[in-house]
Amino acid sequence: MGGRETVTLQGAPAPHARGDPPLWRSLCRGGGILFELAPAKALLNDAERELIDLYETIRDDLDGLSRLLSLWDTDEKSFYRIRDIDRIPGAKESLGKTFRAARTLYLNKTCFNGLHRLNGKGEFNVPYCHARKKVLDMENLTALSEYLKSAEISFSCSDFESFIDDIPADCYLYLDPPYDPVSKTSAFVSYTEGGFGKEDQARLAECLKRFRRRGGSFLLSNSDTPFIRSLYEGWCEIIEISARRSLAASSSSRGKVVELAIRSECHG
């Protein structure tokens, strides 16, 4: 759901290739890196409460989630009926956690390009996708549920600054924040209601400097822009990687792009 595929970092081996740290903590939309590595112990933090609710529901109430999804049609009228629930004050909250989780997954599978975007009122505003879609993939959902039950995985929904400042320095931190726009027309920063702008990017960099001074190691993904490079040059390793962009509005904008893997390793 994060909008980017898992990327094998050229020249930046994943933490498990160097030996697992005591705890792998992940701050990433969609949790792709976490589920790719499948550590035995981890904490995933995300600013979007509905995503955390979805993971917890897949772990704790997969039967209830699948029952709801099996009842919902994927035609355009049904899509807008379910999408626009958040336009009714208090309606979404009154329907319960399992319903909210089912709605999150349903919208991800039926909206345009699987985007997760909120307007200034915190309302999901991505339009319907007319392509054929499969909402309920029980094989994958069951595998994910079993992993979340067997591993020691905790979830939190807090601001990244308090999250990073509170974690021990012997944790390896992976971060996948909303990307810095590469152009004015690509400014997709409304992953959460409050958005994520340049001030937030700078605040994140300062937070990571504090984590590094405590002896922490991290890996950060972001777009290749002069602004992002200016935040990390001189104290981090900056690696250019080729990634596939699948969520652009036009097909001509999709395909491989250059992104950055920004790494800081503390040894001993």
Structural commentary:
This protein is α/β, with parallel strands linked by helices and 268 residues long. It folds into 2 domains: 15-47 and 158-186 and 196-264, Rossmann fold; 54-127 and 136-140, Adenine-specific Methyltransferase, domain 2 (Orthogonal Bundle), CATH 1.10.1020.10. Helix content is 36%, strand content 18%. It contains 10 helices and 7 strands. It has a 7-stranded mixed β-sheet with strand order 3-2-1-4-5-7-6, sandwiched between helices. The chain is globular. The model is unreliable at 1-14 and 16-30 (pLDDT under 50).
Task: Lay out the secondary structure.
Layout: E1 23-28, H1 32-37, E2 41-45, H2 49-60, H3 62-71, H4 76-83, H5 91-94, H6 97-110, H7 138-150, E3 152-156, H8 160-166, E4 171-176, H9 198-213, E5 217-223, H10 226-232, E6 237-245, E7 255-264
Parallel strand pairs: 1-2, 1-4, 2-3, 4-5
Antiparallel strand pairs: 5-7, 6-7
Shape: globular
Overall pLDDT metric: 82
Radius of gyration: 19 Å
CATH-defined superfamily of the largest domain: Vaccinia Virus protein VP39
Notable traits:
268 residues, alpha/beta, Rossmann fold, Adenine-specific Methyltransferase, domain 2, 10 helices, 7 strands, disordered N terminus
Can you describe this structure in just a few lines?
The chain is of the alpha/beta class. It is 36% helix and 18% strand. Mean pLDDT is 82; it is low at 1-14 and 16-30.
